[in-house]
Amino acid sequence: MPLNKPKLPQYPQVAVGVIVFKEGKILLVKRFKDPQKETWAIPGGSVNLGETLQEAAEREIKEETGIKVKAKKPIHTFDLIERDEKGKIRFHYVVIDLEADYVSGRLKPADDALDAGWFSPEDLDNLAVTEGTRNLLRRLEFLS
């Protein structure tokens, strides 16, 4: 019986990242799956057909963390491209980061988040945070 090979993408996928601050801290999740498995990053995920960016952001935060947010405007866009050892593309996401306001709820990691938390700038010194997240937080003047 042949082994199932992971299906390689044919096109980039659109995804959202959701930047939520509360009481001087930022919401991060520890990723359960690739890309960037087991690193801390801005939460988010794929945009479903027919969803606005804001709807996708609000749904993804609810699924990953259990909290409710009100998504606002996009503030940052980037490509996340990951290749395998042979150079074939494993993942290609066009990620649109949106600001969002915390509305309600208590953090409870779920879906593809191993963990979730609110972190101060000092907390990030001891976390395996993606370089893209660190760069964005510097740009937002959350990190120096």
Structural overview:
The structure is a single chain. The chain is α+β, with helices and mostly antiparallel strands. The protein has one domain (13-139): Nucleoside Triphosphate Pyrophosphohydrolase (Alpha-Beta Complex). 15% of the residues lie in helices and 42% in strands. It has 2 helices and 7 strands; from the N terminus they run ββββαβββα. Strands 1, 2, 3, 4, 5, 6 and 7 form a 7-stranded mixed sheet that branches. The mean pLDDT is 91.
Output the number of helix runs. 2
Number of domains: 1
- Let me know the CATH homologous superfamily: Nucleoside Triphosphate Pyrophosphohydrolase
Give the amount of beta strand, in percent: 35-45%
